[in-house]
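Title: Prediction job returns without error message
Component: structure pipeline
Severity: low
Priority: P3
Assignee: unassigned

Description:
Job completed but the reporter wants confirmation the result is attached to the right record. Sequence as submitted:
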Amino acid sequence: MNYEQILYDVEDHVLTITLNRPEKLNAFTDQMRDEILDALDHADADDEVRAIIFTGAGRGFCAGKDLSAGAGTFNHDEDGSGFHRDGGGLVTLRLFDCRKPVIAACNGPAVGIGSTMQCAMDVRLASESARYGFVFSRRGIVPEACSSWFLPRVVGISTALEWSYSGRIIEAEEALERRFVRSVHPAEDLLPAARALAHEFAAQTSSVSVTLIRHMMWKMLGADHPMEAHKIDSRGIYHMGKSGDAAEGIASFLEKRPAEFPGKVSQDMPEFFPWWQDRDFS
């Protein structure tokens, strides 16, 4: 796919996906959705990509859904499509299943899907000019992009409800105080900080281990008992314990040298992975 509304740039094992409609504050469209989905498919299949950063072109991250269609923007019956799957949810579900760590580098206003897509990312960094808005009550709709699942898990139920009830704009410092973001940076330092963190994820780590860790942590958020974690931990330790990555991890430690892990996410995931994909939409 030729990308028109995002930029896709890989450098030193880090993929940067830039939402690229700066003249519209990177407002979200169906085309942008499809390009993001395609980009994540490519990233998962590319063993050179070890971590992903999302950011926005220009002065904004994403101004939310493009409202240029007017009052009928969210009325999908107008086009005869019948029941409609939320496009933001397709993106966050794909992020949920992504095999690479995902970092948000929020460089400016992030409203609606601009905020909710970040909920499904692993770590969120903000510039001093970042602003967040879960504005659904002010648009006469409801939270989308699976944010009724993600947001309470990120900031707790009380903050999630406060922000969603009011629909007010949240400054970067409040987002930091409420633990929505990891850190706040001057604009010029935001991407360097995100890249430094991405390189921590990519350097001297097993890419297969990182993928398993990502999914073990996220999927356990819905478990009803620690026994569920014990089951997955046990399977992971058993399968990885006999892998080349485990042998290399131990050997490099004993020999006091940098590790060179042989495992590739594209072909060396354990046979039980992905263990959660037995759900259908209905």
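Comment from assignee: result matches the submitted record. The radius of gyration is 20 Å.
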